[in-house]
Amino acid sequence: MIASDIISIDKLLSHPKIETAIADINSETIDRRAFVPQKCRVFSNGFISLQDQPQYQFPINREAKKQLPDIIHNHVQKLIPGLPDNKDGHRAFLKKRNIGIVFSGGPAPGGHNVVAGIFDAAKKANPESQIFGFILGPEGILENRYVEITSELVNTYRNMGGFTMIKTGRSKIDSKIKMTLSRETCQALNIDALVIVGGDDSNTNAAFLAQALKIDGIQVIGIPKTIDGDIQISTEDGETLCAISFGFHSAARAFSQNISNLCTDASSDLKYWHVCKVMGRVASHLALEAALQTHANLTLIGEDLADYVDKERLKKADEKGEVDYTAYGMTLRHLSRMICDAIVKRAAKGKNYGVMIIPEGVLEFINEIQIFIIKLNTIIAQYNQIYDLDFHTTFHALDAKLEYLRRLSRGITEKQASPIWNARDDELFNDLPSFFQEGLLVERDTHGNFQFSQVNTEKIIMDMVGDYLHILKEKGEYKVGIEESRFHYFMERANLDHDLVGKTIFRNYKEDRYYLIKKNIISVKTLKQVLINAGIITNNEKVPESVLTIFKKSVPNFKTQSHFYGYDGRGSNPTKFDCNYTYNLGLTAFSLIANGATGQMAVIKNLEHNLDTWEPLGIPIARLMHLEERKGKLTLVMEKNVVDTNSNAFRILKAMREKWLAADHGEDHYRKPGPVRFRGKSEEDRPLTLVLNSISLPPSK
Fold first, then answer.
1. pLDDT, tens digit, for every residue of 75-99?
2. Catalytic residue numbers?
3. Paired residues of 193 in beta bridges
């Protein structure tokens, strides 16, 4: 093309097809914005009333009763159609309100639909109502920074991912001064009700705000948000009222799509083990869902590891008349051996590749690591309290932190409250690689929790796995199986006696489809000696090229690729399930507000079933609280829920482990979950975890 034929950039950019191709808005976004979520049946009525459900009981924590006296006796409330003759209730439902909304903590797909649900319901009840979004999370309340939510703003973000509309933040309203600032902001805007969209800590914050602001007539409602899926609420007798928090399904689907792509890559290239770490600091719900979605070869579930019992060690101790308490719970060493066993089994069938899923917080379920974390959390909290200094600022470098621990173990630090770090701890800690020491000493989050996302969990585990595989390789136990037909091909090409060579170099010749080189053949030198002893070659002859090729193909080269799935999933667009779920949460929140509720969390019962059975409820947050150690002291917080190892979902994963490991002659059993999408009719309507857990069968006789 000559210079005179080149179209100017201005003309190029103004071409209609190019404008369409590079526009910010594509057809998927248009479809998303146009999607109208389905509503729960109760919202088809004119106005909503609340009905107490005293049959749903929770144990009441004594400290919660003391600190939250005005909301601790709330009942679970069911949303029901308002009666036509309830004139006062109808009038109250339709009155003008000012409602504030705040996102708190990390984003989760569907948050914008919570806003849309509240906005639509409030404006339908009274067009003069105003909705305010506080900017950058709780910080917006403290600093009185907000934006009024308008139709144009809501319509821009309907069914879209992220918390982009008003942003989010991690500030906490956890002091008298902050409570006062919050009250002043709400009073300045004439706020009638405040909706806090967040996880367990944010809903804990909502409970304390509800208690503090009740005297001012300001209502506070919580919304269960976390991709970790660890907000699951059941009554004292085990009835599920909230099966999962919003955002979980979308994040799990996003992770699963990426992990599925790695399954395809692994089974195409045949040389990598893809190690996929997924978010989930305390609970392994995301790892479990991703495993069910993808059928990855190996999935670690932290809660399962915590329940592990080493029966062999118990037996040996019993024979000596002793009790080995260290036999209870998984150790790092044993975990690495379990993973190695799976890798060796697959390699023996010619599959020196695979996909492994590890939950972000798996180390918290490992005995010795959990002890280190508890002790270090306490040491750091005590230092901050006693010296009124920040541990991580004072001891910035790793060496300085290690020296402080060393002095602690010798009893040199005169002010430390308790001698919890002893010489044995110091010795074991110093045996860890420096990057792991640094990870365990990383700065805690705002709640005093250990930040697992900052630690290369997969590197710690896979380094140990690699070291042990090297030992197994030296022992001749870790070898790649040679497929029978491939062996015959090489023998025919070299005109060698199949049976003579096969019996000489393989330990399972004609016993399996995949042949394994004998354990004592670990080098070209040992291979040659075996061939000489069998009379196949003489001392002066070289190992036949075909036999040498077979040997080299049997030598495993363990390669890993690590991947972390977290921020990409929490920033994904919501699935239809989460779009419907969150919109109904918004409608529920408004109905609770319109009926005078406070200190309640808006939830949807029966999420594990079809949408036409969904049942909106308000649950008293105060009754979900318990005491938990934070920053070295007991603090009242909302309880997290971990994977139930007796649930259908986990038991099915456990039952399928051997099949999905696929350490056999057949193909892998990888599943293609597909991307999160809005077109077509193949989109699943809820998480597989919920589908499986909803199935009820009569017990076996």
1. 999 999 998 889 999 999 999 999 9
2. 228
3. 99, 219
